[in-house]
Amino acid sequence: MTKKKQVLSMISIALMSLLIVTMLNVANMANARLLMGEGESLWDRGRTRHGGKIHFIMSPNPYATFNPPPGVEADAIIVWVSVVKDSTYGRFTLAMVGYENHTDPNRNEYHYYTDYFMAGRMYAYLDARLFPEMQNYDVSVARIYVTESALQLNATVIVRDQMLFKVTYWVDISSPVESRIELTSLSTELYLSVEAYRPILDASVTGLNVGDFIDGRFDYIDTELVDSSLLP
User: Above 50 in pLDDT, residue 32?
Assistant: First the structure.
């Protein structure tokens, strides 16, 4: 990539980050207007414990999907790593290995790993509330080491002093930076996600039994706004 293209790419990412922050501010103001004067509301009930809204800023935030190897009962395996800052616990790191069954979501399994157990448990719980297919999950404490360059991200997950797996994601820097808004069946007052990303060119995993790489996405930034009334 030429220096000019690198600069243009960085400008695009910066502009997308600004757009994300603006949209989150708009969502906050819209939510406040909607709930104003309605007595006890989702905003009011959530404010007591977590300030009403939980903000997650995940950067970097890549995932890759793999075919399952013979003998593994799944249609796809997902390997995800994220460096997170949130408004409740601060900074922490997450990794997740998911085994997905496309015909029977009840057979899905998601294994989360985090260096901050309370934060990781909260995030996994909210995932299960937001996405019904993610009900079967567990959370483990791990050390997660992440290194990143313009072309790739490397992560190592260590559990109980043993290396569980290593993953490397290669970014497709020839593709333009794209953006998307992710919604669920819940209203935007309860959940809103805005992402800026490029596709992943390739990914490899050691320590886990996975098949060939299918596809993936490298989020430069993913911001999520979740109403804390979704917590127990």
Answer: no
Overall number of domains in the chain: 1
How far the first Cα of the chain sits from its last, in Å, is 48
CA distances from residue 141 to 89, 94, 150, 229 in whole angstroms, order as listed: 15, 10, 29, 26
Rounded to whole angstroms, the Cα distance separating 146 from 177 reads 22
Q: Which DSSP letter does residue 142 get?
A: -
Q: What is the CATH number for 155?
A: 2.40.400
Q: What is the pLDDT of residue 187?
A: 79
Q: Map tokens 């996975």 to a residue.
A: 210
Confidence of residue 19 (pLDDT cuts 50, 70, 90): low
Q: What is the mean pLDDT of the chain?
A: 83
Domain span at 123: 3-230
Q: Three-class SS of residue 158?
A: strand
> What's the longest Cα–Cα distance across the chain?
58
For residues 177-203, average pLDDT: 90
The pTM for the full model equals 0.80
Name the DSSP class of 119. H
DSSP type of residue 177: P
- Spatial contact of 96 and 113, defined as CB atoms under 8 Å apart: yes
Query: What is the spatial distance between Cα 28 and Cα 36, in angstroms, rounded to a whole number?
Result: 12
Taking the C-alpha atoms of residue 133 and residue 158, their distance in angstroms, rounded to an integer, is 27
